[in-house]
Amino acid sequence: MNFLLTHAPILIIALPLLGAFLTPLISRLHPKMRNIFVLTILIFTGFLTMLLTRDVLANGIRVYVLGAAPSTLTVPTGSIMPVRIILETDALSVLMAMISVSLAFVSALYSSKFMENRTGLDKYYTLLLLLLAGMLGMELTGDLFNLFVFLEITSISGCALVAFYTDRGESAEAAFKYMLIGTVGALFVLFAVALLYGEYDALNIGYLASKIQYSFLDKIALVLLVGAFAMKAGSVPMHMWKPDAYGEAPASVVIMLVTSSLASLYALLRVCFTLYGNVLNTAVVGWIIIVLGVLSIFVGVTMALVQNKFSRLIGYTAVAEIGYMLLGVGVGLASLTNGSIEDYGLKAVQGGLFHIMNDALDLGLLFLVAGAVFYSTGKSDLNKLGGLAHNMKYTTIFFMIGLAAVSGLPPMNGFASKLIIYETSYQLEPLGPILSIIAILSSILMLAVFVKVFHSAFLGPKLKEYENVKDAPRSMLIAMGILAVFIIIFGLFPDTVINTIIKPAANALIDYQGYIDKIMGGV
Amino acid sequence: MIQHFPFIAVVILIGLGIYACMFKRNLIKIVIGVSLIESGVNLFLITLGYVKGGVAPIYTNAPGTNMVLPTPQALTLTSIVIGLATTALMLSFAVLIYKHYSSIDAKTRRLKG
Amino acid sequence: MFGKLSNMDFHVISQQKPFWLLSLGTLETTAGYWNAVVFVIAFVVIALVVYIIRAFGEKTYKKGSEQTKPFLSGNPEPEKEKVHVRADNLFWGFTEALKDYYTPAVRGHTGIVNDYVYWFVIVLAGLFIIIGVGT
Amino acid sequence: MNKKIGFLAFAVVFVFLFLSAMYMHPFGEPNEKDMDNHFIEKGQNDTGANNIVTSVVFDYRGYDTLGEATVLFTAVTGVAVAFSMAYGKKKEMKEMSKIVRTVTNILYSFIIIFGFYIIMHGHLTPGGGFQGGAVVASAFALLVISYSALKIKGILKKENFSVSECSGLFAFIALAFLGISTAFFYNFLAGGTVFGNIPAGINPGDLNTGGVIPLMNIAVGVEVLSGIGLIILYMFTYGKEAKE
């Protein structure tokens, strides 16, 4: 067990990669074996992530140096800086890794039945594992160039999965758009990494954070990094690829795309809080993130109201939910003045991180419901649907849970995190109340959006064409059930979740000095 | 000023690439624009690592020991292969779009609003 | 100021030994606290009260009989497809009222690939000016 | 997409990138060289390879290269997804003239040998798995162009390439896993007897140095040549019978 723990950070990433490389070979042997193989890989990765989470929450940041004699020797003897690639996992990256792995497991479980009658499934499962490996690589690494490489893996495998329904023109078009804007953004990230390398001849995030002096070149690198990662996360003016891609991709893929945009959001937080931790002009950058967040909330919700394609509509609400996360974290960043953060700022960061976890589950459930409706009726246009509640009982119940959770109705988890975001953004000095008012009204509008979906797709009289619609198959219902159970538990006992995993993650995010000392402190 | 010519060439390449991505209608030209940005960033990485009078960092029959920085070359190797991967994928999506829409103009699209 | 005041009151209330129930799911936010379990219990109690009041309702209502037919002043009921309100015209009033916001907003998402890069470059330019020149 | 605002924003971004070019250290005089000096001085000793760039690519930052080989594998799978649909009429690619075909018959074997030379000597001379793999893949492109794609189907089959790509990648990650007792990507063969005696200073460079690096070079070379070969085959032969 100790062997697994010391090598846990790299095993979590290398295992899905190994699985992805073997899936084509295994699926030549027997397709049924491939599904089981993928699920066992995901279960074992999940077990390793839980092991790592327990250890990181117990005794702080864990460092793993790739290729060094003792795997914790960050700075080699006789040198003043880390030269190898170091995987630095603190409480925040472990939280994100937990979200990614659990949603990947649910997606693989769901797609075993959802994608059953499609060809080329070995390519599908290979890309699914690669997408998971890319996300985990982004979340666990402590090296800036390595972050770029795994960001590229995530965006390429994401685009290939969006284009999986090659028989429809729209999915190729959506994949091209996602790929183009993803590549241009990643190239700007590479340009910023090259700028920082040119100045400090270092690629390790911890070492760079200790060396950075916010010169003109550092500001340009900051702008490129913040712009590219905000675009990959999907904040408003650059959000248009998100509804396109989420509307056209298969439902089980869309959950992974949601978590991949959360991984880009994590990279944005890592840049703003840790890389530029001690030099950042927190007021300006904090307010930039807040403005991006509030714009995302407003535009995401209002545009969702007029959509009539099921998963495209949820794609727009995904943009709005990213806005809530940006608002929560932006308020925290804005209130962070030279190293000390006010208590409402720390609470805001906790609210933002809690909302990341809640929202990944809520949107996941809603996209799975959209997939179940598409699986049973073959249509995803809300104008043609109606009266599905008569036949699809369980899917309707899951949709009601998802609806209550996403739009923040009281007993659900969405409400707990949104309540924290409302209250803390209210106390921000210059414009605080306006922010929380916009956030509250938009949440009500989101409820209206989903009531529209609920009425047009599920309620209403039993239409003739959906007379003999069957409910979603068992394994899809189990996948949705897992998410629904998590949503209800997090909703009823939010404080236990916050105290166990969200508070350490927020403290780890704020405490950039601890991040640096872990690297420069040597063994 | 002469010291900054390589970096100016980099910025011109990246500027051309962005211009092509923003204003060109043909999908293939947009992909060419992206590969222009890629070559610009690769050139930037390489020019960062040059040392005046330096030799390639290879010890086999090396003429001298004043060597150029090896890391940018390693990073550029990675970014060239990534450029190959993205260009190949984008071109195959363009083929797919042409197959369905029988036109590769950015204006013919169905996902809007 | 208002936030601070109410914070103290809540702390005073919750100092007295709360039931094990209260402390189980209580979420401490800076300006007060939230407990989902108590909310659910209150919800169930109120639902019970509502059900009891409903039980005093009109007994003569029979489920599948004539009474469930909508009264369309005698006209025959149109078949189901026409009755069901489709998605587009559900929030017709809202979108009609905000027409001068919605038409540019919907047209804003043009779907042309160049516009995606266009918006990205605009945000970059804005950030350059704010961060590059500003601070 | 308002052209004027678009051009204005483009101009602002261009100006700021231009300023970053001006503020950057002058070409040829990098102001910080600590990490790279460490590589140049200790590279031979730590990894046993003469070519410091290859030691950085496969040993110091080997994890990046694993990520990058995965990027290529993802792109090949993506291209396979995009072209897996058998649609459209079969495209009859005519053969090239007799002259081209005879030249190809002579040339392509030399290209393949030269490619494998580059792969094998990655840790001594400039080159390595990726460069050598690309050279060998160019031989496949030559074959496919000169003999029309459909006739070449007999020799260059997609299944073989896919299997060899996956096995190359599996070999690469297995080599990385073998060092797991101390750390992932640990060069456990360096300093050993068979593969890893450590050269010092300037030397003519013999083959059995570099520990794990030459093996990784071969694994990545096999993966790259079959990956790019697959992309070429998918792009040339998509059409009615393109079911894989």
Explain this structure:
The complex is a heterotetramer of chains A (523), B (113), C (135) and D (244). Chain A is mainly α and 523 residues long. Chain A is built from 20 helices and 4 strands. In chain A, β3 (336-337) and β4 (340-341) form a beta hairpin. The longest helix of chain A has 35 residues, at 343-377. Chain A is globular. The mean pLDDT of chain A is 92. Chain B has one domain (2-101): Helix Hairpins. Chain B is 65% helix and 0% strand. Chain B has 3 helices and no strands. In chain B, α1 runs antiparallel to α2 (27-48) and α2 packs antiparallel against α3. The radius of gyration of chain B is 19 Å and the shape is elongated. The model of chain C is unreliable at 1-7 (pLDDT under 50). In chain C, 60% of the residues lie in helices and 6% in strands. Chain C contains 7 helices and 2 strands; from the N terminus they run ααββααααα. Chain C is mainly α and 135 residues long. The chains are: A mainly alpha (523), B mainly alpha (113), C mainly alpha (135), D mainly alpha (244). Chains in contact: A-B, A-C, A-D, B-C, B-D, C-D.
Query: Number of helix segments of chain D?
Result: 8
Q: Could you give the order of strands across the largest sheet of chain A?
A: 1-2
Q: Helices and strands of chain D, in N-to-C order? A: HHHHHHHH
How far apart lie the N and C ends of chain D?
A: 42 Å
Any low-confidence stretches of chain A, pLDDT <50, length ≥5?
none
Order of helices and strands of chain A: HHHEEHHHHHHHHHHEEHHHHHHH
Structural class category of chain A:
mainly alpha
Brief summary:
The complex is a heterotetramer of chains A (523), B (113), C (135) and D (244). Chain C is mostly helical and 135 residues long. In chain C, 60% of the residues lie in helices and 6% in strands.
Helices and strands in order:
The complex is a heterotetramer of chains A (523), B (113), C (135) and D (244).
Chain B (H helix, E strand, L loop, with lengths): L4 H19 L3 H22 L21 H32 L12
Chain C lengths: L1 H14 L4 H5 L1 E4 L2 E4 H20 L24 H4 L8 H6 L1 H10 L4 H22 L1
Antiparallel strand pairs in C: 1-2
Chain D lengths: L2 H21 L10 H14 L4 H9 L1 H22 L14 H23 L8 H18 L11 H21 L33 H26 L7
